Amino acid sequence: MDYQLELRHITYFLAVANELHFRKAADKLFISQPGLSRQIKDMESHLGITLFNRHNRQVKLTPAGAYLKTELTKNLNNLNTILNHAKLLDTGKDGKLNFGYVGSAMQQIIPDLLLKFTQNHPNILFSLKEMENNKQVEGLLSQDIDIGFVRLERVPRGLKTKAVLKEPFCLVLPKNHPIDHSNFKNISQFKTEHFILFDAEYSSSYYEKVMEIFDDSGFTPLISHNTIHAGSIYKLVENNFGVSIVPKSLQIENHPNIKFIELHKIRQRTVLSAVWNKDNQNPILNEVLALIHKKIIK
Q: HTH lysR-type domain: from which residue to which, for each copy (predicted)?
């Protein structure tokens, strides 16, 4: 009987390729290890190639196996997108789009985008997840998310970006801080203060941009805390643990315990960009990108 390569064989191969351990892969697939090994050997025989090198209980992908892992993972994600889209159409929905974003994008950019988009596409499901920049990149490459909003100056090959907002920075101070708009001159007034900043892991390029502000002001900041959440920064500032610098879009009007001073005279600006995988086959993504490219978002 001719051996037919089926979707389950691809699933088995990818499980072993990810684990590089037959027993662990078998456990995740809920099948026996001998049965999994047999299926992989049958797949290799059918294709006429060796997918794994097995030496002293170590399992490694061959060059052909590594290539198949990359391409099959990408195309299996596309297949899942197509099948999920068909299910949504069957239930009366036009599709689904998964968003990743840094917190500042939710202040205005994403709400404005969704409001404009749903005017003509009321039956779209949106999944929104706040994620740090690097997690978004991982999610876009694996196509776990369709579009991200990041503060990164460079992204890996395969991803495309479009700047949607270029903005100045703001100082964040406790409400009772002696410096305000009336007597603020420059950042050097804060050289003895402790600073609470977004962690470098949030975005190394964003962190370097903030460090340039201090370089231009002629001092190295005393950094007391690093975090990846604006809410944590504000809580620490209002409790007098230090001051901070954030993008203007994170400014909160009429906050009872903190105040903001826009740094419009310095040269540094931070850019929020939309980013997506050019190989993503989600048909809704192109509709959203059309809005972004038309510069409907200000």
A: 5-62
